[in-house]
Amino acid sequence: MNGNTTAPLHNTLAFFRLSSPQQSLNTLVKSWFVVALVGQWFFAVYVFLISVLPVISGKPMSADFSHMITGLIVGDHKGNFILFAHLIPAAILSFCGVLQLVPHIKLRYPAFHRWNGRLFLLLGLIGALTGLYLTWIRGSRFSDIGAVGVTINGLLIPIAVYLAWRYARKGRVDAHKRWAVHSFMLVNGVWTLRLYMMGWFIINQGPNGNNNTFDGPADMFFSFACYLLPMLIVELVFWARKQGNTLRVVGVSIMMGLGTAVTAIGVIGAAAFMWLPRIQVLLVNA
Ligand code: HEM
Question: Is the CB of 282 under 6 A from ligand 1?
């Protein structure tokens, strides 16, 4: 090999040798963000195509929700309306939510950050309340015990949204940021759940500890882990940022790296096995 071909490798090694634990952590947080942005926008496009498009084309009952637990029921106007009121905000918030995490947008366009933040928190609240209605009043659940994880997720969303909003009003920037990021993780718990499940199926070459009533050991674990694990990592990253350049930061960076890898595997799995095939069916039937 000559000097030219080895230069990129040397540069990469030099970067890791020279970067401090804090810089490495920042790089990993940014890498997670890029993966999450791709996954969120893919999900937004998917939800837009399955739910928003039929509504704006004036044919809501033509929407194909056959993969869902209940989906559309002819004559159940209230239930169908609430299902759309659950899905349409999901499409919008999956598109706009990630933008709140870009420091450049926050600094350069504070008014946009404020209004986009309000929109995200409001839509997250609507998603949680309509989700609780669909699960417990409309009865869209595989089993009571299997629905506990998502129910607690739904109940935590209003708490986190309230705290994020309250601290913003009081001008307590750090506390606002912390609860806004937790709101993001909680509102996107159902998205993370899909990533974890798809990643799990890929690693195990199929279901393992999962069942049709969504109360197998793996189902139960992921239905809680989908918001508790991201919230734990968020807390660790906030904590690590106050730790200087110590070994603790290296430990948190390793967790962040693993989190980014799991998110990437999940995004690829959910896109390949869930969202793309359903989009393909839509395009074929269009
Ligand atoms: C705000 C956060 C939430 C978002 C963004 C969201 C998003 C979605 C999306 C996109 C779907 C369609 C699934 C698909 O096509 O693969 C869905 C379905 C569903 N969600 Fe949520 N969801 C949220 C919170 C919740 C909560 C907290 C609950 C329950 C407590 C819930 C209960 C349901 C149910 C029951 C369905 C299936 C409806 C049916 O089968 O008819 N969601 N959600």
Answer: no
Domain boundaries, the chain: 21-285
Q: What is the pTM of this model?
A: 0.92
Under DSSP, the state recorded for 2 is -
86: Cβ below 6 Å to ligand 1? yes
Q: Who contacts 148 (Cβ-Cβ below 8 Å, separation ≥6)?
A: 223
Integer Cα distance of 155 and 162 in angstroms: 12
Task: Provide block-wise average pLDDT over 10 residues at a time, the chain (286 residues).
Answer: 57 62 95 98 97 95 95 97 98 98 96 97 98 98 97 98 97 97 98 97 96 97 98 98 92 96 97 96 86
**What is the chain's Cα-based Rg?**
21
Q: What is the DSSP letter of 244?
A: -
10 Å Cβ neighbour count for 274?
18
Helices 173-187 and 217-240 cross at an angle (nearest 10°) of 160
